[in-house]
Amino acid sequence: MSSYMCACVNPLPPFYSLSNSSSIHQTIQEHLSIEDAAKMSVLSRPWRHVWASIPKLVFSAQFCRSKPPDTLVDVINTILSQHVGAIKTFLLNISSIPSSQHPVIDQWMLLLSRNGVVDLTLQNLYNAPYKLPSYMYSVALESLKLSNCIFRPPCSFRGFCKLKKLSLLEVALEFDVSTSCLWMPNLFSLKVRVCGGLPKIYAPELLHIFFFTRSTKTLMLDHFMDCRKLKTVILAKSEKNQDKPMNLTYLLNCWPMIKRLSLDGYYLKSLAYGIEEERLPTCLNRLKALSLFNFNFNDEDQLFSLLRLFGSSPNLEDLLILLTWKKKGGMEVEVNHFERPAYRTLGLNKLQKFKIENFHGSRTKMLFVRFILASAPLLQEAILLEDAERVHESQCLEILKELVGFPRASPKLGIICKPSKIGKEVLY
């Protein structure tokens, strides 16, 4: 008989109450894997009782892959059937469970819905999509994370009123035509990756959003205009997306509390549309960290948008730029926007950290680095991770010589140059 079976044959007796030491035992077991917790439960009777009532069950990918599907289902069935008390947190990787066994998972979900689950995670990376049962939509969940599932709520569903965290990865959202808005008044974190059909969400307490989409036609960011408490906004799209970029300018005006903004080149360039001035029409006074991915210095719209963000972010402290991976021999467009008088006064007075990845020292990029070094009096660290496939040793030396000669507004600045993949750091 396996340790899982042994651990569950003697459930907690009705007269048993957890002492302080048992509470400590339970806390310890909550931080162990299912396998390790089961092994510890055979040490003594108190440990066995703690195991039977532990409120957090995590069936990770590593645990599930270590067993044949039929054995895995039997083990989970045994653990759940012998469990005593509430199950507050439940994580299950169902990737290795065949779709023919999905009805068994439905029974596990039914058990959870009756045992006080508040934190539910279903991971399904390479199996048939799992359809979340209808009775789960009436559970008072506080955290829900789904991947490769079907989210098809009943017609009466209007949202999770207690939900605080929602994460959806490749989830098919199939709402009734009458569902125009979801009510989630306590939601503060929303992550949506490769999902379509998300309706408007009423979430006045929303603080963090992350969207990765294949098509912006399925993403209505204007649904979040009323989320004025947003502090973190991360937007990225699939490389296959050819939709016209949406205009983010008016949305930034609705999000005055943003502290961290991360955009890929696709979303960044939307800030160039419809604007004549060097600055955005709104001031991002609270923005502290700016991250840009798939940035292309040869795209003038992206470059203009970046400079306009600088002009509208007087308190920016942390700047990260991840450049696009370009094919060898690609055309270099020599454009210098950094000598214009209007850009020399851009507010980088608070910038402390600056990092570029996939750097390869083209003229435009070097001018940009010089512009940053000369404009940031509080800059403490500049990290240039060179594109090891494109930059040869001789080119590295030339880049370093030029960097050393650049004027620095900050007397405390340290510059680190190293290849992105291998190599030693060179500190100046």
Give structural attributes.
428 residues, alpha/beta, 15-stranded mixed sheet, three-stranded parallel sheet, 20 strands, 22% strand, elongated, disordered C terminus, F-box/FBD/LRR-repeat protein At1g13570-like isoform X2
List the helices and strands and how they pair.
Elements: H1 3-8, H2 20-30, H3 34-41, H4 45-53, E1 56-59, H5 61-65, H6 69-81, E2 89-93, H7 102-113, E3 119-123, E4 130-131, E5 143-147, E6 149-151, E7 165-169, E8 172-173, E9 181-183, E10 189-193, E11 200-202, E12 208-213, E13 232-237, H8 249-254, E14 260-264, H9 265-268, E15 289-295, H10 300-311, E16 318-323, H11 341-344, E17 353-359, H12 363-375, E18 381-386, H13 393-405, E19 414-419, E20 426-427
Helix pairs in contact: 2-4, 3-4
Organism: Nicotiana tabacum (Common tobacco)
Protein name: F-box/FBD/LRR-repeat protein At1g13570-like isoform X2
Structural write-up:
This is F-box/FBD/LRR-repeat protein At1g13570-like isoform X2. The chain has 428 residues and is α/β, with parallel strands linked by helices. It has 13 helices and 20 strands. The strands form 3 sheets. Strands 1-2-3-5-7-10-12-13-14-15-16-17-18-19-20 form a 15-stranded mixed beta sheet. A 3-stranded parallel beta sheet has the order 4-6-8, with no helix packed on it. Strands 9-11 form a two-stranded parallel sheet. Helix 7 links the parallel strand 2 and strand 3. The longest helix has 13 residues. The protein starts with a helix and ends with a strand.
